[in-house]
Amino acid sequence: MAAQRKSAQQVAAREKARAKAQELTEGHERLIDLAAEFFEQEQQAEQIRAEAQERADAILAKAEQDAEAAAKEAGAKVQQMLDTGERRAAVAARLGLSTAQMKRALDGAGTSSPAEAGRTEPALAATADDVAEQVAAETKAA
């Protein structure tokens, strides 16, 4: 059998090199696809966490509002008990509250004593201009 010509050897070597390069390229493409899928899943995980945090924050905010409303109602009940003429100490003893707890309950209801229940406090001014307007309004009213 005759020896292959040099050009035939070169063609065979190039074909082998092309086949190997094709294998490597396909492998790299598969790795690129897997990496892209990985980043998509990572992004989806972050989005899920962010949405869950938003829902949790909304639930906690609603719970805090509900708790504040319940505390205000509890304070209103304490005030109603005091409005019957019962002494503060007796109401505190009946409810098992210390004087500090009793004051917090009444403060939560918006009043701290029957005498103060009908009195309204002026709103605090936010700026110097607001202070000037508030002073002018109080002076005019007096």
TrEMBL record:
Lineage: superkingdom: Bacteria
Region (Disordered): 1-22, 105-125
Sequence ranges of Basic and acidic residues compositional bias: 13-22
Full protein name: Uncharacterized protein
Organism of provenance: Arthrobacter bussei
